[in-house]
TrEMBL record:
Protein name per its UniProtKB record: Insulinase family protein
Domain Peptidase M16 C-terminal residues, every copy: 206-381
Gene3D superfamilies reported for this sequence: Metalloenzyme, LuxS/M16 peptidase-like (3.30.830.10)
Lineage: Bacteria, Pseudomonadati, Pseudomonadota, Gammaproteobacteria, Oceanospirillales
Species assigned in the record: Alloalcanivorax marinus
Alphabetical UniProt keywords: Signal
Listed PROSITE patterns: PROKAR_LIPOPROTEIN (PS51257)
GO MF term list: metal ion binding
Signal peptide limits: 1-26
Length: 466
């Protein structure tokens, strides 16, 4: 459930002081570098075992709270969709509280409450005013919601029906179908290999008892990270974290996920679908959270396909040849692995050429890496953008949740910027060669016919020359 209420007032400030220090020559502009995000992250563990990360911020009279549990779709077991259903039912009822009581309770306090479920994690979020009379009531209401959720049968039936309708709608459009097929091809029987939102076969069998058992096990305090950002003191933050930790079920951390294995040969799959476009996904298991090559892969992928119109794939496949409507790539590091995904959508008549050209660009990038000019441009863009990623509390709370959940160092954001500045073209080339083999990728497509898959470097070179 999501409850939103706009706040009565907005605060803004314009600061023009320090203009004399602005760079006024080419040399000073060249020397000016975006500052690394400087967050003083405080951390401790509650009596129940929850990890807490706290950043005090008095920029706004607000408090953001995020609970991150090791309770994502990877924990579904043989019931795909169980984690998603559990998350969706939080806030639909609790001991002594109806769904309307919960909704009005947060709304009347000017607070917003939301939940979310992803492959690795389940997330519970609260944003409230930091004035004690508002903040404490909102935190206490959150504690009641997470302390004794009732998972009403009528809410379960409603959420299930909505989820089943969504799955049926997914069969009418190509995007979700090719996404799920790609996920299954790349991860197979690994916990990441099934659809997080469940299946038409699995959802009808999920019961209240299943949801309750999942909640008791995976939403336990010892399996949780509590992130706090806002206008509160350390003493107040400790009290809030303790209140929420005490409310959660007792229990320890979930067992680590097994590391996903890479495909060892090229795997091609096509779904016949009557559409005007062909969607193609290319990739493999390639990384994980904590991979020492993470920064090199991140910067390299920004150059290859993650930098929007500045990326090689967009410049060549879309701008120069006009083969695609859109093309992009990214690495998605998670606890038990993480795919490299390259995705494109093209008119059916262009599918063969678009795939050959894309594969050729990818093969060349794995072999050669970027030029120095491409790397310099990417570094400037990445560092400039990173400065905005901790611009307000909502940005910071997301970073805190990830740092705590994946057990990253507290100075991770500062280290990341330093590593971006230090990465070389050779680092990127070597990292890509360790992560990817152009001849051992999944190629999954959907459209009226399967595109011709290049057999190797020669076919891909021909695609580049067309």
């Amino acid at each position: 459930m999501i409850v939103w209420k706009p706040f009565a007032a907005a605060l803004c400030a314009l600061a023009l002081a320090g203009c004399a220090s602005f760079p006024t020559t080419a040399a000073r502009v060249d020397d000016a570098k975006p500052a690394a995000p400087e967050l003083t992250i405080q951390s401790w563990t509650t009596a129940e075992g929850a990890k807490v990360l706290f950043v005090p911020s008095d920029a706004l009279p607000m408090l953001d709270v995020r609970l991150v549990m090791n309770a994502g779709g990877a924990r579904d077991g043989d019931q795909p969709g169980l984690a998603s259903m559990t998350s969706a039912l939080l806030g639909e009822g609790a001991e002594g509280l109806s769904v309307d009581d919960i909704a009005r309770g947060f709304e009347d306090r000017g607070a917003s409450f939301s939940t979310g479920s992803y492959q690795d994690m389940g997330v519970i979020s609260l944003r409230t005013l930091s004035r004690p009379e508002w903040r404490d009531d909102a935190v206490n209401l959150l504690a009641r919601v997470i302390g004794a959720p009732s998972f009403p049968q009528d809410a379960l039936d409603r959420v299930r029906t909505r989820a089943l309708q969504g799955l049926k709608m997914d069969r009418q459009v190509p995007g979700p179908q090719v996404e799920k097929a790609f996920q299954k091809v790349v991860f197979g029987d690994h916990p990441y290999g099934h659809a997080d939102d469940g299946t038409l076969e699995s959802l009808p069998g999920i019961t209240r008892d299943d949801v309750s058992r999942f909640y008791q096990r995976y939403y336990a305090a010892g399996n949780a990270v509590i992130a706090l950002v806002g206008d509160v003191t350390r003493e107040q933050a400790e009290a809030i974290a303790a209140r929420l930790s005490e409310a959660l079920p007792e229990g320890g951390p979930a067992a680590p996920l097994p590391r996903a294995e890479r495909l060892t040969e090229r795997t091609v799959e096509h779904i016949d679908f009557p559409s005007n476009q062909t969607h193609i996904l290319i990739g493999n298991q390639a990384t994980w959270r904590g991979n020492p090559d993470h920064v090199a892969l991140y910067v390299g992928n920004y150059i290859l396909g993650g930098g929007g119109f500045a990326s090689l794939l967009t410049q060549q496949v879309r701008e120069e040849h006009g083969y695609v409507y859109g093309v992009s790539s990214y690495f998605q590091p998670m606890a038990g692995g993480g795919p490299f995904r390259l995705q494109l959508q093209t008119a059916n008549d262009n599918a063969d050429q678009a795939l050959a050209l894309t594969m050729g660009i990818l093969r060349d990038f794995i072999a050669d890496g970027p030029t120095q000019a491409q790397l310099d441009n990417a570094k400037a863009n990445i560092l400039g953008r990173r400065a905005l990623e901790t611009a307000d509390n909502s940005d910071i709370i997301g970073q805190l949740g990830a740092i705590g959940f994946y057990d990253l160092p507290l100075d991770y954001l500062q280290r990341f910027n330093e590593q971006v500045e230090a990465v070389t073209a050779a680092d990127i080339r070597n990292a890509f060669q360790r992560a990817l083999d152009a001849d051992k990728l999944a190629i999954v497509s959907i459209g009226p016919r399967a595109p011709d898959v290049p057999q190797g470097a020669q076919d891909e070179t021909q695609g580049q020359n067309q």
